[in-house]
Design a protein that fits this description.
It is built from eight helices and two strands; from the N terminus they run H-H-H-H-H-H-H-H-E-E. By secondary structure, it is an all-alpha fold. Helices cover about 40% and strands about 0% of the residues. The termini are far apart. Strand 1 and strand 2 form a beta hairpin. The radius of gyration is 20 Å and the shape is globular. A two-stranded antiparallel ribbon has the order 1-2. Bound molecules: heme C (2 copies).
Length: about 190
Amino acid sequence: MMILRFVLLCFCLSLAATAYADDDDHDSFWSFSKDKSGVRAVDHMLYRQNCAECHFAYQPGLLPRRSWQKMMQTSSLADHFGDNAELADADRQSILAYLNTYAADDADYKRSKKMMRSIREHETPLRITQVRYFIEKHDEIPLRMVTGNPQVRSWSNCATCHTTADTGSFEEDDVRILGVGKWEDD
Ligand code: HEC
Ligand code: HEC
């Protein structure tokens, strides 16, 4: 009888452990206070090595799954916004799997939800900077501070203005536009 009880206890414990391990975002179990006001930070080495060579490491939670799938096709990568961003097929598949897992679609982060809500079902944006939510959030910033600013140059350079962008946080209070300074909204 003792042995049976022990076996049952072990079985239950292993079930519980599996349940947590299966959870996509087990961070939420280990730290209850995890901040979800931004997007989930990048934690994939291969993604960082291959997709942050030419620009900021855009978090998967900034675009829907269908956008990443389209962008990550071999033929799309060969002409990636005018550049060649082709990858070895194993790397391409590993990165795509990562993007699929943490895409905005079902992410439990505020900015991912806002991005999703502003994209229509039939739309597959390839640029974060062309999504309605992005445009609305940035439409008061004069172009001389962006495209006309040699230290920023493009809307795509998130981290030249958002000092905490790499952590997945885009709070207005942390904005310092390179060559301009703190953003005063009025
Ligand atoms: C060889 C350089 C290069 C590599 C490598 C590269 N990109 Fe890009 N990417 C670009 C350029 C250039 C742009 C356009 C930037 C601009 O308009 O200022 C861009 C734009 C983007 C954008 C759109 C940004 C916006 O404006 O909203 C996304 C998303 C993106 N890249 C994702 C990726 C991913 C994912 C990878 C890895 C598979 C990757 N990039 C690898 C050069 C590169
Ligand atoms: C030229 C500087 C600049 C660049 C480049 C830029 N942003 Fe911003 N962003 C701002 C400013 C300033 C605000 C605050 C605007 C306001 O509410 O008045 C902002 C607001 C935001 C917000 C909303 C934050 C909030 O508190 O409501 C998000 C999300 C965001 N940016 C994401 C991005 C992403 C992602 C990129 C890159 C693809 C990017 N931004 C590029 C300056 C910039």
